[in-house]
Structure formats: structure tokens, C-alpha cells
Specification:
CATH architecture: 3-Layer(aba) Sandwich
Number of helices: 6
Number of strands: 6
Shape: globular
CATH superfamily: Response regulator
Radius of gyration: 14 Å
Helix content: 40-55%
CATH topology: Rossmann fold
CATH class: Alpha Beta
Distance between the termini: 26 Å
Structural class: alpha/beta
Number of domains: 1
Strand order of the largest sheet: 1-6-5-4-2-3
């Protein structure tokens, strides 16, 4: 893994290989998984749960917003970009960050050019489909570990998140 400059350490990261994974296990988090393909949602949800996380799965951005608006604990948003309905994963992320500017987000998509546009976002990671359940877990754990190790960057990340 290449060393990132201090300015870019909060930028979105591509999960490239198992070596990018964080070896220390962060605390259990509540993951809101937004995926309209039932098989992918089931497999990734199960992998995250096996990794010690609480997982709530929904199939649309509208369902995710309802979950977030109900005051449910969400420590990380894991969303597909291409979702059915009027709002895609990027629009969902904007709304989620309006509620919680520090919310870590994992974006997943088979449309790689969309992911490239998101790689500079703070407190975010990108996954290109197809990806393995292990890589999904690595992305989640990496973001959680980054948040735990950079508490002094919270104000900067809050401001940058609002620019989403």
C-alpha cells in the first residue's frame, strides 16, 4: 500500500487487496446496507454480521432514508450507487451526511467511472463490482479503524463531508 499525503488521508480509498485490510478489529458497528440485488445483499450482509457487525439491509435509497430518519443507530453506510427509484446511492449519501456529516460511507458499483468520481470524498471507500465478501468487510473495517485513529480530524471531516 502506498503512503498517502496528510492532505489526502481522509479521501476515499479503493480497497485493492487483502493487504489493505486493517488487522485490528474495530468495535461492533451498525451498518446500513443498501443493495437492490437480493443475493448480493444477503451475502454481504451475512459476511458483515459474521465479522461482528449489526446489519440492517434495505433495497432502496428511500427505505434507507426512512431508517436514518427514524433515529436508528447507523455507524456506517454501505451503498450500491445504482439503486431503483428517484434517488441513487450518491444522492442517498448526500442526505445521510446532512444528518451525520462524519458518517463513513462505502460506495459499491459495477459502473467504475462513477466510483472514480467518488475517490476523493472524505471518510469514504469505493468497491468495484464484482467484489468479495472479504473485501466488503475490509472496506468497513478500514473506515472504522480510520475513524477511531483520527478523532482530531473530526471537525475537518465534518466540513468536508458537507461538500459532498
Amino acid at each position: 500500500m502506498t503512503q498517502k499525503s496528510p492532505k489526502r488521508k481522509a479521501a476515499a480509498r479503493k480497497v485493492k487487496s487483502p493487504q489493505d485490510a486493517v488487522t485490528a478489529k474495530p468495535r461492533q458497528c451498525c451498518v446500513l446496507l443498501v443493495e437492490d440485488e437480493a443475493l448480493i445483499a444477503e451475502v454481504i450482509g451475512e459476511a458483515l454480521a459474521d465479522g461482528g457487525h449489526a446489519v440492517h439491509i434495505v433495497g432502496t435509497a428511500q427505505e434507507a432514508i426512512a431508517h436514518l430518519s427514524n433515529g436508528a443507530r447507523v455507524d456506517l453506510l454501505f451503498t450500491d450507487i445504482n439503486l431503483p427509484g428517484e434517488l441513487d446511492g450518491v444522492g442517498l449519501a448526500e442526505r445521510a451526511r446532512a444528518l451525520n456529516p462524519q458518517l463513513p460511507i462505502v460506495f459499491a458499483s459495477g459502473r467504475w467511472w462513477r466510483l472514480e468520481e467518488l475517490e476523493t470524498l472524505p471518510n469514504a471507500a469505493t468497491l468495484r463490482k464484482p467484489y468479495s465478501p472479504a473485501r466488503a468487510c475490509e472496506a468497513v473495517d478500514m473506515l472504522l479503524a480510520d475513524n477511531a485513529s483520527n478523532p482530531d480530524d473530526a471537525a475537518t471531516e465534518r466540513e468536508a463531508a458537507l461538500a459532498l
